[in-house]
């Protein structure tokens, strides 16, 4: 399980979990689950497009999630946010089916992109992900207070000169980048589980933002580690364990909160 | 004749798979577009999308068991609707979160089932056909059950039309008038799962949102009366589906030997229709401001 070829995978997964846990808390607090689901799913055709163009997958993914972020914020100005998200997702996925079918290696590639593949991570692939991860954490650290204020009380934030539209766009962009870097490893469908499961559990357990952030990150890392280990032992896909564990964490946190509230 | 052949590649009308595709595609498009209008009005696009994504687990089970994908999609979509309701979809504040958690768990299950599909039946194509649809591969024997499901969905919608509309537009008014808002909500989810099943068979589980939300969102932009919105949504859905099937069939002749996916054409047409509807809806407003 800790053979040398697995070490890169462990490092990569840990970086991704830290970022997903931190970004995820704000996704949960801002009620942006749908966008956090739509961005990775809409971005995954970017990998196929990158294959067609012969550039690195990461850039294709960043390009597509950038399109998604811009599209959602633009459409949401004159449309309910959930409808805007659904429309953008649909348009990107439609393009995706075309790219996937044109780019040849269809079936296996699709499964890997949707559900993730942790086996073949090379040392060279870690550096860009680490750089992006540090960038996101730094941005979150710098913007923590204004973002939190905007999340919890948009009106109060506006009086402090924090525009709701800009905060929305900036945060969505962070989600987009986090998505692009996590996607090849955890898969388009489960980046999202990793973002909201641990974060939702953390929020149920504590009301203090900083504690919740820390807890969310720890739970996300734990989820990923357990999932990789379980996947290694059982030979079942990592994605299955991530999805199930995230839901379990949430259910347990919910139950424990209900239990504590009872006199 | 040559112009005719340019639009309809030779053999379009004689091909049995095309005929089947047109019939089930129409049924899926109409049912999805109609319930889609209510879904858009209720602000439940995420729930609609989640149901279709989760139903992919059903498609994978069906693959594993060797039964028709229809029953797999249907069973899991109905179960997922029940799970969403149980998990507290009613409290709107937590709705997105709970939907997301259920969605994540469902997708995890799909990952496992597809993994088993690929392992046991060595069919890498399972992921593609479940996720992105394979309308030309649906056997003609599925027409009757699929029309049955469509009929059931339309019948249910007809029976609860007024309370469904009222709860979608103004839940408070509806409950003041004695409508049981929560049971109507559950029925809406059930009809939604029927629609999602049909669309998943047509354009695939993760794309069925296109037929559900796209035509409805476009229709709501233009029409200001519920009846007209329903009519327009159905029409838009049909245009996109027929156009998509036709273009996909024609694409055999563009790139010899390789057809472009139907789902690509359907989603592109839906996107175009939505953009056109937005431009159309903008027009009178611009004129009004110009006059003023």
From TrEMBL, chain A:
It comes from Acidisoma silvae. Its main location: membrane. Belongs to the ABC-3 integral membrane protein family. This is Metal ABC transporter permease. GO terms for biological process: response to zinc ion; transmembrane transport. It is a multi-pass membrane protein. The lineage of its organism: Bacteria, Pseudomonadati, Pseudomonadota, Alphaproteobacteria, Acetobacterales. GO terms for cellular component: ATP-binding cassette (ABC) transporter complex. Pfam families: ABC-3 (PF00950). The chain crosses the membrane at residues 6-27, 58-76, 83-100, 129-149, 169-192, 212-233, 239-256.
TrEMBL record, chain B:
It is a multi-pass membrane protein. Keywords: Membrane, Transmembrane, Transmembrane helix, Transport. One of its GO terms (cellular component) is ATP-binding cassette (ABC) transporter complex. It is found in: Cell membrane; Membrane. The chain crosses the membrane at residues 21-41, 61-84, 96-116, 122-140, 147-164, 184-217, 229-249, 261-281. GO terms for biological process: response to zinc ion; transmembrane transport. Its main location: membrane. Belongs to the ABC-3 integral membrane protein family. This is Metal ABC transporter permease. It comes from Acidisoma silvae.
